[in-house]
Amino acid sequence: MPRDDGNSGQKYSTTPRASRRDVLKWGGVSLLSGGLMNVLAGRAAAASRKARIKSCLFLFQAGGVSQIDTFDMKPDADITIRGEFRPIDSNVPGMPVCELLPRMARQMDKVCVVRSVHHRMLCHNPAIYAALSGREVGESLAVSNKTFASREDYPHVGAIVSRLIEKPAALPSAVSLPFTLRNGPAPSPGQHAGFLGTAHDPYLVLRDPSSDDFRLDELEFPAEMNLDRASGRKSLLERFDAGLRRLEETAAVEALGENYRRAYGLLDSSATRRAFDLSAESDALRDRYGRNLVGQSTLLGRRLIEAGVPFVTVYTPVAAIDGPSWDTHLDNFPRLKKELLPPVDLALPTLLEDMHARGLLDETLVVWAGEFGRTPLIGARRSNNGNNVTGRDHWPGCYTILLAGGGVFGGKYFGASDRLGWYPRENPIHIADLTATILAAFGIDPAQVVPDTLGRPHVISEGHAVPGLLS
Questions:
Q1: In whole angstroms, what is the distance from residue 156 CA to residue 198 CA?
Q2: pLDDT digits (tens, 9 = 90+) for 110-131
Q3: Max Cα separation, the chain?
């Protein structure tokens, strides 16, 4: 139903749009045979000729960044809205940023600040699912310990890219690091390939790149395993796998074989091992990114993009057990000042400067976004978490993300929030439209139909690429 912030007169609908997936889901597997499959393949090929980017680095700020305290400040509002921080000028006239982001202020000419993203999911797990897959599914206030990942889920946007673009020779098609997001006992939904099957799951790096002993043991052969023995085992596996497929042509067997082949490909790839070797970077550059989880994970993301990985997702913690979290229900201002904004003001501007210098921004889209923002009103309660006296609650009604590279017009705003920041005032962007825009940048038709592991057809996105967001 329409929502109104009470001061701007601007309204927009939070009613979920009709699902094209629901229309096609029960159309039958026979729809994907013969001519229709040829038509769909033709559409995919046509779309791929219009690709603007070769890669995407998705810096996912789990927990939810306060837009009011960073890139969509409201200095003229009451202190209960504007908070403690003041804006400072950036290198783009008319685009101020928070005073705690002085380095980022010098890189704003490379960034498009999108201030009108919205969806309806008020709690972490359904909002994470929406932000990573572009789908609003289930209850907005779903309790985290009852909402977790399933193989029936819609896929992570990086898994869609893995499924629909040409694969790199040896590297993974998608990588996620440095941990699996959890807000409850099980992984949050939206982080894997869901109904596309395990073969398209992002390769998970579950180690802290800032640790002194960071290395991926799984990329090394065991000491007792020489190359001849490994090759022999690979050959035996291939013969066994071929025979097993003749006995039972199932999706599960095919996925198992693909995972084995992918594992051997990684072990056999010197390019992969080099991409994960942070010691190849100078100490000075590693210091500029920040010797912490955020900084070194961001640097590793850049190395993977440079090596040729099409889609890299770098997570920050949603739960404090993994490190400082943007989920600032309590002590919003001291936590932003001491724990959260300083690492961003090292890693993000250094990344933009570094990628620009290396020519990587031309064909790489950088996305800096979380699952939602925070309430403009300090102490307001909108989610099922009531401890917001000194903080800001979850708020998906209107929040801010940053885009850079990949055809993005830098030094610009796209969209705007209303006077107090509750709802979009100009150019509202639904979360489905954001993921559709990312897919379109890869040359993927968001309306394309793909089968799941059982052959059932699905439209990969309910959104539409946003005109004017990318060049």
A1: 12
A2: 999 999 999 999 999 999 999 9
A3: 72
